Amino acid sequence: MGKDHPIKSEKDRASHIWRIFGEKYPQFCISNYGTITLDNILITPSKKDGGSSDYSEFLKAKGYFEELVKLTFNELGVRYSEFLEEQERAFNELHPLNVKSALASDSVIDMYSKMALWTIDEAVALILDRSPSMLNKKNISKLSRQPKIVSKYNVISIIADRARLAHKLSAFNPPDKFLDWAESVEIEVPAKLDQAVRSKQKVNWKKRCDELGKELEQAKAEIDHLKAKKQETSISERERESLLKMILGIAMEQYDHDPYAARTETVKNIESDLTTHGLKLDQDTIRKYLHQAKDRFLPTEPD
User: Fold this and answer.
1) Residues 6+ positions from 170 with CB-CB distance below 8 Å
2) Sign of the dihedral through C-alpha 132, 137, 142, 148
3) CB within 8 A of 260, min separation 6: which ones?
4) Which terminus has fewer CB within 10 Å in the chain: N or C?
């Protein structure tokens, strides 16, 4: 650990001792961070009353200070690393996002387990065993220094957002769907949360089957309605044949149409006459019906 905070000079040494000593005995440590030396860190009480509790405490502080001064650079580096780790541990332990009131209590879990949908932010907070009203982006943005729980929150939020972009999650998700996704990417889900969600999100299969049965009957009725409507608007096969015969007969009689000719002016002439009377029909459509009539009613080769 000492190699993480190497001491390279007497200035580093004095600074490290000042921080370690000042944390434990602030009343006997110089408070202003100016030029720190080993000579000005320890503050001696003005009254040296050997029987006073203050002086007795000072003697303990002095002994601790002298202990720090005797450490080698490497030993002090190790002690300083341990000091920083303890500082970080205390910071995280006492941070408002880690105290009991910030945790996902039974009442919070019960409320959210009954909800039809969670936002991704709510889900991530619950996954981390925190109340969404405490651990959220708005509150995080106000922090000057962030505890480790925020780093976890940010990482899971990024993973969840990428899953949303990949259409594996939505902005709002059913609780059980989000937990299934979290487990699929090996994100640990608190047992209490998982149990609460699973117990309340169970499907009533009988009720669901009844609902699906009604939906199926409605769908069948709609299909029958559409079929009947189609029959009303479509012509019969017999009527179609009659119309095709009429089209082919008029084309051959009035336009001297040769059904077997490779090229013919019939289509162009019919389109022109129809347009003259305000009836618009494209050549492809005319050609299609003439071909259909020929294929159905005339021999493959001319007699």
Assistant:
1) 164
2) positive
3) 301, 302
4) C
Please indicate, yes or no, whether the overall pTM of this predicted structure exceeds 0.85: no
| HEC string for the chain | CHHHCCCCCHHHHHHHHHHHHHHHCHHHECCCCCCCCCCCCECCCCCCCCCCHHHHHHHHHHHHHHHHHHCCHHHHHHHHHHHHHHHHHHHHHHCCCCCHHHECCHHHHHHHHCCCCEEHHHHHHHHCCECCCCCCHHHHHCCCCCCHHHHHHHHHHHHHHHHHHCCCCCCEECHHHHHHHHHHCCCCCCHHHHHHHHHHCCCCHHHHHHHHHHHHHHHHHHHHHHHHHHHHHCCCHHHHHHHHHHHHHHHHHHCCCCCCCCCCCHHHHHHHHHHHCCCCCCHHHHHHHHHHHHHHHCCCCCC
Q: Rounded distance, CA 71 to CA 86, Å?
A: 19
CA-CA distance, 187 to 132, in Å (whole number)?
18
9-13: average pLDDT: 90
Q: What is the pLDDT of residues 271-283, one digit of tens each?
A: 888 898 888 889 8
Q: Give the tens place of pLDDT for each residue, 94-140.
A: 888 989 999 999 999 999 999 999 999 999 999 999 999 999 999 99
